Amino acid sequence: MRKRTPLRYSPNQKVEIFELEFLPHIHSIYNFAYRITFDEDDAKDLVQETYLKSFRFIDSFEKGTNAKAWLFRILKNSFINEFRKKNKEPVKIDYQEVEAFYNSDELNHMITSNLQVEAIKEMIGDEVSIALNSLEVDFRTVIILCDIEGFSYEEMALILDVPIGTIRSRLHRARNLLREKLKRYAGSMGYK
Fold first, then answer.
1. What CATH number belongs to 95-188?
2. pTM of the entire structure?
3. How far apart are CA 192 and CA 188, in angstroms?
4. Which residues contact 9 (CB under 8 A, 6 or more apart)?
5. Where are the domains of the chain?
6. What is the pLDDT of residue 129?
7. Are 135 and 148 in contact (CB under 8 A)?
8. Each residue's pLDDT tens digit, 21-46
9. For the CA atoms of 71, 76, 79, 85, what is the dihedral angle to 10 degrees?
10. Alpha-carbon torsion 174, 177, 181, 183, what sign?
């Protein structure tokens, strides 16, 4: 793949590209971020970082190309970089906060509330979401990109920076794993 020279957009062109080509995809970007992080705050941080980077490097974006795929690739790379960074850092604990938490009167109330929330989630949980979220991140990602976001194999290969054959293989395995996880649920709903 040859490198191309970055374009030079005027400040007004940058704002126009950002508003017209990047912002319409913010919901898809957030949904993808949430599905790979499982945390609202982490997903919001990842979306914010994605959009900051997209604006910072907007000169490397070719106007009229697939902005959604470009943003997904930035998000995926940011997620991987953050994951690597967190794995290299030692766990930091503020012992004064831990001590204050365990000495508080609200501890028992919080534990009881959390157990109630978890019990309710188990009773009315969305089996499909649970099954999808239980897949390894590589498999979950290809299902989300292909079956939920509608990217082509070529676009997914660019986003994930892997060959198309790897995309096909991962997608096939991911769908089989998901099918196995949902087999009992499908039977209970009358499907064979």
1. 1.10.10.10
2. 0.63
3. 9
4. 17, 58, 59, 63
5. 11-87, 95-188
6. 83
7. no
8. 999 999 999 999 998 888 899 999 99
9. -120
10. positive
